[in-house]
Amino acid sequence: MAVNRVVITGRGAVSPFGLGVPLLLEKIWAGSSAVRHMEEWAEIRGLRSHIAAPVPDFDAKKFLPRSARRTMGAMAVYATLATREAIADADIQQEMLEGGRTGVAIGSTTGSAAAYEEFYLKYLPEKVLDGIKSGEFFKMMGHSCVANVCLALGVEGEQWAPVSACTSSSQAIGLGYILIQAGRQDIVLCGGADEAHASVTGVFDLLRAASFNNSDPEGGCRPFERDRDGVVCGGGSGILVLESLESAERRGRKYMVRLLGLAMLLTAGILPARIKR
Description:
Blueprint: E1 6-15, E2 18-19, H1 21-29, E3 36-37, E4 51-52, H2 66-69, H3 74-89, H4 94-97, E5 102-107, H5 113-123, H6 135-140, H7 144-153, E6 159-160, H8 168-181, E7 187-194, H9 198-206, E8 236-244, H10 245-251, E9 257-259, H11 270-274
Parallel strand pairs: 5-6, 5-7
Antiparallel strand pairs: 1-2, 1-8, 1-9, 3-4, 7-8
Helix pairs in contact: 3-7
Protein name: Beta-ketoacyl synthase-like N-terminal domain-containing protein
GO biological process, one term: fatty acid biosynthetic process
GO molecular function, one term: 3-oxoacyl-[acyl-carrier-protein] synthase activity
């Protein structure tokens, strides 16, 4: 059976350097680091890693209406802006988003960590739900990014939200590849999003997998160095436009990369074996 060839025709990003792919590439090629010391984390008892790469503050009101923002945590905002940039980069028109042949696959480990914290700070002390807005659930749900992206941008194709910890966005890209190859979608907006939060870094801290290089934040993220000491968590979103080669050629779009295949490695049981009980 013949299968569709899959190419990449657009890209978008919100990163610890700021908004947009051009700024991200500029900083990467310059060898810049966005890791910084999180002074506000010093008050968290037991947290040893005080470094992260958060997205710089920006006013989301300038980019998204309140009707869209009220159900978005930070990570959903990042995903929506990155997806919008990728759509523009690939010159995808609104009627293509609404036609059912463009889907979305965006992975994340959980919903908004900040939204979880805010919810349980209100709920747990007295177990009271009064004062918690209904929109908080949509920030917390595991598929918050993909749901909000589709609602905000009017995408009516297939919607997927793979959750597989650090490989969530990679699986989202693989899923997009499969959907296009099988002919279920012509275009899939793929990638991932996350936000920097003390609880996220804290998980790696508990696993003894976080970097404790607090005295030199910019030197904290060094995965290929002999004296590396752990993970540095960050925030942002990266989105790729995957498209069938036939669709791209029909639109007269040049592609950046052709995807030839994918593979997934089952790692269940590896982490528990390394955790000291």
